[in-house]
Write a structure and sequence with these properties.
Elements: H1 2-12, E1 28-30, H2 32-39, E2 44-47, H3 50-55, H4 60-74, E3 78-85, E4 88-91, H5 95-103, E5 108-110, H6 115-121, E6 125-127, H7 129-139, E7 143-145, H8 156-159, H9 164-169, E8 175-178, H10 187-196, E9 200-204, E10 224-226, H11 229-242, E11 248-251, H12 256-259, H13 262-278, H14 286-297, H15 301-334, E12 348-351, E13 355-362, E14 375-382, H16 384-394, E15 400-406, H17 409-417, E16 422-429, E17 435-441, E18 447-453, H18 462-466, H19 469-474, E19 477-481, H20 486-499, E20 502-506, E21 527-528, H21 532-541, H22 554-568, E22 574-578, E23 584-591, E24 594-595, E25 608-613, H23 629-642, H24 647-662, E26 691-695
Parallel strand pairs: 1-4, 2-3, 2-7, 5-6, 7-8, 8-11, 9-10, 9-11, 12-15, 12-19, 13-17, 15-16, 19-20, 20-21, 21-22
Antiparallel strand pairs: 3-4, 3-6, 13-14, 17-18, 22-23, 23-24, 23-25, 25-26
Helix pairs in contact: 4-5, 4-15, 11-15, 13-14, 16-23, 21-22, 23-24
């Protein structure tokens, strides 16, 4: 039956870095770097692409676009340039895609009104402020940097020529960072129109002077002013929290050293405006004509100033995005219940997933898909980290459990069930779903289908976990499950390395088993409890050859498990390899004919060996839930280790806890106690002697 538990764990981790707002929409393409940053709650800055397709000539457009993205990265944010390529809206562009837009002669200028047509025809184009805002909002990006926004055109009170940028700001909750409004427009009426739309406008800097693109002063003032990234972030956060569905315009003056040419550029603008009017140029063609004409009249000075203000906006916008990310994470931390109850004396810290499980068990061995099958459905509460923390809590410990849930009914239910646990490290996050998992199993307990919504696990970030560093430093043992982000694993491992903390890694499934092995983080682990497939993944990530197919006979299984454990034992203290129906294999330091499970105080040369313990028998009729057996085993093993029990006793505690789990409707049996897993209290249990092997 432990094999079935391993199979379930192997399949259960379903996660995605794709923003949930875009993952089911075939019209959008989110670049992996952007979706990864969003999932990990890191700052992202949206960038428009009309500056590439219509704002500058090639190759200035391409070099400027790449330079702006580099500035964003230098400020530790992720750039997400938005563009339309062959009818798909791309949020984040590769170098090849940037080059394609920069060179493309047939690119169109894409605003809100143009999106349906461009997409239906499979065309390409650069997105304006309004279209970029739409795409950024759909992806969950709150900060967008551009050069300048459109506005009310001169004589707009008669022509009603008003940029869609303004109405978009009135209905899309995005912070737009720009150098104000282009001076070719009617700035006074533009500000009045923004007020009518309910848009909060603020100048960034030391005054309320509203900038006019090439000039830091337009003769008009903003209603408000923010002095630094932190103030700007608070303003944006307040707007988003109110749910007003309107944007924020932050106007950033052009740097003083480039504003000196402003007067000359303004004179050129007036000349270009007069010429455009005389030639009958109207609508969307006005701005490109004037910018090109001004560039000619100023002999390139306007282009240099244009590039300078875009660079400055990118830098300021990225700093604001970073401040907003920190502010948002801080607010989420405040939503954690009972933070004053966090116990610094917790001897174990568990960091991992918490979710609601729905177990559907058929009453027949074969399930028929596409029709209703007779069976039973029960709800239970799981998550690898939660299960291990639950097991430890029932075995005489009070581990600090660090995780995240949504602020929903599932969260209410699972936290109510976990009242016996120290859940003071569980953050309840607004606008997030508590992780859920549904397993469909046959009458004998075999998994037929698993479905899960585990996205919230990506919110267990390095920043959040770092708030508990005091508890980490005082812990005897820290347990990590594979659901948490790689950056969080790396952070805990770095703390462990500096302060000699013992870390146990529960891989969760074969895909996530590799997370600590993406860097040298794994060298800071003390324990890990992989199954054979997960052990293969770990070795593969280290470049070590593994069998193409997993062996079936016990002798071959043990031989492969021992061979694959050897490279990891160069740094890990002990490996607990779960072998399903074949039991458990311990690999580690030899100590008086056994494997030493007790934490080592210092690394030294040692003799290595392995012990194989057969599994306890559980019949199909006794099996009610296969989702927590492996976690029960790991939790009881940890309890035994921290209680300084001998190796045989630790393993037997683990095997007994796993058997209780299989016979319970819950992943961790509510009847689990120290007495229940005390080998001395178990009647008529034949404990076979474990098999011993040396490891070369």
């Amino acid at each position: 039956m432990m094999k079935k538990a391993s199979a379930l764990i192997l399949r259960r981790g379903i996660s995605t870095f794709q923003s949930k707002l875009c993952k089911n929409d075939s019209l959008f393409r989110v670049h992996p770097s952007v979706s990864q940053a969003l999932a990990e709650n890191r700052p992202v800055v949206a960038l428009e692409s009309t500056i590439i397709t219509h704002g500058m000539p090639y190759p200035h457009n391409l070099s400027t676009a790449k330079e702006v993205e580099a500035i964003v990265r230098a400020e530790e944010a992720t750039p997400a340039t938005v563009g339309v390529i062959e009818g798909k809206i791309h949020i984040g562009l590769s170098s090849e895609e940037l080059d394609h837009l920069a060179r493309c002669k047939s690119s169109l200028k894409v605003s809100r009104r143009d999106l349906p047509y461009i997409i239906s025809k499979g065309l390409s184009g650069g997105t304006t402020v309004s279209a970029t805002m739409i795409a950024a909002h759909r992806a969950g990006i709150p900060v967008f940097v551009t050069g300048g926004i459109g506005g009310v055109h001169r004589d707009g009170e008669n022509s009603l020529d008003i940029s869609a940028d303004l109405t978009e700001l009135g209905r899309t909750p995005i912070a737009v960072i720009s150098a104000g409004v282009k001076s070719i427009l009617d700035i006074g009426r533009t500000l009045e129109f923004l007020e009518t739309q309910g848009v909060c406008v603020a100048t960034y800097g030391s005054s309320k002077n509203f900038p006019a693109f090439f000039s830091p002063q337009s003769g008009f003032s903003s209603p408000y002013q923010v002095c630094n990234p932190e103030e700007a972030a608070k303003l944006i956060a307040s707007t988003l929290s109110l749910g007003l569905q309107t944007g924020v315009l932050l106007a950033v003056p052009i740097p003083e050293e480039h504003a000196a040419a402003g007067q000359q550029i303004e004179q050129a603008i007036q000349t270009a405006v007069t010429e455009a009017s005389g030639k009958g140029i109207t609508g969307r063609d006005v701005t490109p004509f004037i910018l090109q004409k001004v560039n000619e009249l100023t002999e390139g000075k306007s282009l240099q100033a244009n590039i300078a203000l875009i660079r400055n906006n990118a830098k300021v916008g990225s700093q604001i995005a970073c401040a907003l990310s920190k502010h948002t994470n801080k607010r989420k931390l405040r939503s954690t219940p009972n933070r004053h109850e966090i116990k610094s004396e917790s001897d174990i810290v568990v960091i991992g997933g918490i979710n609601v499980d729905f177990i559907a068990k058929g009453k027949t061995q074969t399930l028929h898909f596409g029709k209703t099958n007779p069976g039973s459905v029960c709800e239970s509460f799981g998550g690898v980290g939660r299960n291990i923390a639950d097991s430890l809590s029932r075995l005489g410990h009070r581990p600090l459990f660090i995780s995240a849930t949504g602020a929903d009914s599932h969260s209410d239910a699972v936290l109510n069930y976990c009242k016996h646990m120290n859940t003071s490290g569980v953050a309840r996050l607004q606008d997030q779903n508590t992780a859920t998992y549904c397993a469909v199993i046959t009458e004998s307990g075999e998994l037929s289908l698993g479905l899960g919504d585990m996205d919230i696990h990506q919110q267990i970030t390095e920043h959040y976990v770092s708030q508990f560093e005091k508890q980490l430093l005082s812990a005897t043992l820290v347990c990590l499950d594979g659901n948490i982000p790689v950056s969080t694993i790396d952070y805990v491992c770095s703390v462990a390395r500096k302060h000699n903390i013992n870390v146990w890694y529960e891989p969760t499934d074969s895909e996530k088993a590799c997370k600590p092995f993406l860097s040298d983080a794994w060298k800071s682990l003390s324990y890990s409890s992989p199954n054979l497939a997960e052990l293969c993944t770990m070795n593969q990530k280290l470049g070590i050859q593994t069998p193409e197919e997993l062996p079936s006979s016990l002798d071959e299984v043990l031989s492969v498990a021992v061979a694959l454990s050897r490279p990891l034992l160069e740094h890990l203290h002990c490996l607990v390899v779960t072998l399903g129906a074949n039991g458990v294999l311990l690999c580690g330091e030899h100590d008086a004919g056994s494997v030493n499970l007790q934490p080592r105080k210092q690394k030294k040369k040692r003799k290595l060996c392995a012990l194989h313990y057969p599994a306890l028998t559980v019949t199909a009729e006794e099996t009610m839930n296969v989702s927590g057996a492996g976690d029960s085993l790991a939790g009881a093993l940890m309890a035994g280790i921290v209680q300084k029990q001998k190796t045989d006793r630790c393993v037997r505690m683990g095997l007994l806890a796993a058997r209780l789990s299989l016979a319970s409707p819950h992943p961790i049996a509510p009847m689990l106690t120290l007495d229940c897993v005390d080998p001395d209290n178990v009647q008529n249990q034949n404990w076979p002697k474990p098999s011993f092997m040396w490891i070369d």
